[in-house]
Model the fold of this input.
Amino acid sequence: MSERIFNFSAGPAVMPESVLREAQEALWSLDGTGIGVMEHSHRGSAFKAVLAQTEDACRRLAGIPDNYRVLFLQGGASSQFFTIPMNFLQAGDTADYVVTGSWSKKAVDQAKRYGNVHVAGTSEDRNFCYIPSDLDWSSKSRYTHFTSNNTIFGTEWAKEPEVPGDSPLICDMSSDIFSRPIDVKRYGMIYAGAQKNLGPSGVTLVIIRDDLVSDAALDIPEMLQYRTHAENDSCYNTPPTFGIYVMGRVFHWIEQQGGLKAIAQLNQEKADILYDFLDESVLFKPTADKDSRSLMNITFVTGKADLDAKFIATAKAAGLDGLKGHRSVGGMRASVYNAFPKAGVERLVELMRDFEAKQGEAKQGEAKQG
Ligand SMILES: Cc1ncc(COP(=O)(O)O)c(C=O)c1O
Done:
């Protein structure tokens, strides 16, 4: 088998090695059944056990109260952008949105099809390099939506916004879910595409409070009603069985690491290694404001596109892949989700230090010649 390299991809992203090995085995035969996990009926007892284990582990990990439902849906986080307003926003209603990047902008665009959107705050004026603190809420909001981590721009909310009144807080946690403890009862709904911190693409985790499920619209297609999936334990139609299985193993792996508190500490340590270097580097600069930095997606530039490209190529040749930043920011992005090993961050910093020194030497050489 070929060697694995350090994968800094923003998603789909690196998975815990032990989970990949368990999945290899389960693809062949799930729990000694002689049938692979992808081949079991979603109505059979083997898959029902997988589903129950995945939900139980999710509840344990995040301390999800009993009045919340855990759903495993499809269509990615992007489908939640329209499913949320379809369920909760009638024509004439208003929902508050905080716009901190491309994904929250997309969510706003979809919501506008169904009702009024009040933008309570945005950081677009500086290309989304910060989390806005000056928020102006509307008086009668059906719900309040924000994106906890901005995958493209490398910013993250340190904690959820304080929303006045009883507008349920809805969060797109696609790129930092379970990277730190969550106080679920502060939310009406949390959703996340799995492919960064939870497993393979193709399954979307939704954690939703009972009253939101029961108050939601009835005049929309059944597949798009949260009620349908809640009443049918995510098995109204064929669920993404393999993704649900892997997600369960990832939850188990997080528990083995010591749970969300322990994983948060590890994530902080990993991010500190890179940010500490960036803060002292003369060549590489972080793009996000210090108080808004993401622990999951660390974005940085040299300020020169050709030098960025040279560094990315150098890193790739050294076995560090996926470092190219999103085109709207440029430069580099190191995605260091839960499963990304600390050794990979250390290796990256070593490489950056070396690259910086060589650039310095080259510059000195040029100056002498000139
Ligand atoms: C914060 C955030 N929200 C939503 C999405 C879209 O997710 P999906 O591709 O699952 O629709 C992404 C994808 O990168 C994301 O990072």
